[in-house]
Amino acid sequence: MSATELLRLNFSETRRRSAKLWRGIPVEYLNWRPDKNAFSFIEIIRHVLEGEYLYHKIIEGEGVLGVYKSPWESLSYGNVENELDFAQKYRESFIEMIKKLSDTDLDSIRIVRKELGQNKKLGDYLNRMVYHEAVHAGQVLSYLRTLGVDRPLVWD
Asked: pTM to 2 decimals?
């Protein structure tokens, strides 16, 4: 398995597990948050999906975002399926980008974000992206545990 194939598998499996987890959130809790400063469940989902799009744009610009307008900007929060459906075309575009990368690209392309003092290899940057989603999956699991709600089995 090549490095790019492994990355695609990691992104695919992480999203599959996230979606399974998100679909297990009882609808009545989608707007619940543990405190006034925390994300609600639905905000976490939107943050992950929109964040992937943002990261994709950063990668396309090799670290330079330029003028950015989020497709989610004026979109009202919906339910889990609406959020996943809206993000699907952006997800497909992102996965297609990964498919076109070579293993050499992962090492030679640099993502330079001067405003953050970051200079990362593309492979490193992509791994950080999928880690971001995994962290928020843990956050959702923690919220569900706090509420005493059954948690979907993501370790299948």
From this structure: 0.94
